[in-house]
């Protein structure tokens, strides 16, 4: 795939009526699920016109992910519930924590999943009927992520991160320390690095084999999302007016400037996702623009222009599992999909 392969994407738009906070595809790419601030999960038939609406939560959906089974979705809400939504629109309550907001959720392909509950994390290891409790941590758990092999789950909090063994949740966590609040984290696909974002408009990265760390600062606003390329070479984030990529090949990015390209119209990126098998990214922007980034070609393709008068931030973006569809949704309650394989009709 290259940007030159994208001739004229087929664009579809869906008005869902409430803030879109999460997007995920089924493994076959045929269903796109969109979670909203009204507590609904909209199940969109990406090849047709049908939409099913599942009432998953009594309040807003605060966290959302594809279920490891590939055909359903997990969500956490401000009603304290974790809910599984199937492709047919049926829902099943997995757990309920009265009076809590479930705004942190992580899943792994092995079937394990975890959520944050105040200073603790709850971990359902693969096949477990009841969760194990991890913590307490020094502060509220701000983010969770599983290692690529699923053997560890890591919590971000004030002062750094805590790395827990999934098979031995009662053992003391390994701690990686760095001052300040850590609000998001992602393992590199090769398992060598762990990256977090901080309240200081920066990214912090640990080399897990040695514990050596590095800091990348200078962003214009707080970094909220991180994405690694499938080969672990590049780490990218939102919070800039272009694609900003840190090169982790060789000795890594220490002392080196990032690759920057695709400055577009100067608006700030508010959502980012990585292609599953190629060096491509999709960015959603603060005024509703959507751009496809090509790391090898160091160029971008505008899929949708920003609206200077009425554009609203896009908070959720996603690639389909085959990488040929892009979805974006955000604060105006609209989801837009782009079929990158579609070519213009013959005249």
Write out the strand line-up for the largest beta sheet, numbering strands in chain order: 14-15-16-17-18-19
Second CATH tier, the architecture of the domain at 21-95: Beta Barrel
Structural category is: mainly beta
Strand content is: over 45%
**pLDDT under 50 segments (min length 5)?**
none
Biggest sheet layout? 6 strands, antiparallel
Mean pLDDT: 94
- SS summary, helix count: 0
CATH class label of the domain at 21-95: Mainly Beta
CATH topology of the domain at 21-95: Thrombin, subunit H
In N-to-C order, the SSE pattern is: EEEEEEEEEEEEEEEEEEEEEEEEEEEEEE
Number of strands: 30
Terminal Cα separation, in Å? 25 Å
Helix content: under 10%
Radius of gyration from CA coordinates: 19 Å
Shape: globular
Layout of SSEs?
Blueprint lengths: L9 E6 L4 E6 L5 E6 L3 E6 L5 E5 L5 E6 L5 E6 L3 E6 L4 E6 L8 E3 L5 E5 L2 E5 L7 E3 L8 E4 L5 E14 L8 E14 L5 E6 L3 E6 L5 E4 L9 E3 L5 E4 L5 E5 L11 E3 L7 E6 L5 E6 L4 E5 L4 E6 L9 E6 L5 E6 L3 E6 L8
Antiparallel strand pairs: 1-30, 2-3, 3-4, 4-5, 6-7, 7-8, 8-9, 10-11, 11-12, 12-13, 14-15, 15-16, 16-17, 17-18, 18-19, 20-21, 21-22, 22-23, 24-25, 25-26, 26-27, 28-29, 29-30
């Amino acid at each position: 795939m290259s940007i030159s392969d994208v001739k004229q994407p087929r664009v579809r738009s869906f008005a869902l009526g409430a803030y879109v906070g999460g997007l995920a595809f089924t493994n076959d790419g045929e269903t796109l699920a969109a979670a909203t601030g009204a507590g609904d999960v909209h199940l969109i038939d990406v090849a047709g016109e049908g939409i099913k609406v599942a009432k998953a939560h009594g309040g807003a959906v605060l966290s959302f992910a594809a279920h490891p089974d590939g055909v359903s979705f997990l969500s956490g809400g401000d009603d304290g519930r974790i809910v599984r939504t199937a492709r047919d629109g049926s829902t099943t309550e997995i757990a309920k924590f009265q009076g809590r907001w479930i705004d942190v959720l992580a899943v792994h392909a092995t079937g394990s999943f975890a959520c944050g509950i105040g200073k603790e994390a709850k971990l359902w290891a693969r096949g477990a009927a009841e969760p194990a409790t991890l913590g307490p941590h020094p502060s509220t758990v701000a983010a969770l992520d599983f290692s690529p092999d699923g053997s560890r789950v890591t919590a971000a909090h004030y002062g750094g991160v805590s790395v827990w063994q999934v098979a031995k949740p009662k053992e003391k966590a390994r701690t990686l320390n760095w001052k300040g609040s850590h609000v998001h984290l992602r393992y590199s696909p090769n398992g060598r690095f762990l990256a977090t974002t901080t309240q200081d408009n920066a990214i912090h990265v640990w080399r897990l084999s040695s514990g050596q760390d590095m800091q990348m600062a200078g962003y214009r606003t707080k970094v909220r999302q991180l994405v690694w390329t499938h080969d672990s070479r590049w780490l990218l984030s939102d919070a800039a007016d272009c694609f900003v990529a840190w090169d982790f090949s060789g000795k890594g990015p220490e002392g080196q400037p990032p690759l920057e390209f695709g400055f577009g119209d100067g608006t700030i990126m508010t959502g980012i996702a990585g292609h599953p098998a190629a060096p491509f990214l999709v960015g959603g922007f603060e005024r509703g623009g959507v751009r496809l980034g090509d790391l090898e070609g160091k160029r971008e393709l505008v899929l949708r222009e920003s609206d200077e008068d009425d554009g609203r931030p896009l908070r959720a973006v996603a690639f389909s599992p085959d990488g040929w569809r892009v979805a974006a949704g955000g604060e105006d309650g609209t989801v837009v999909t782009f079929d990158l394989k579609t070519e213009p009709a013959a005249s």
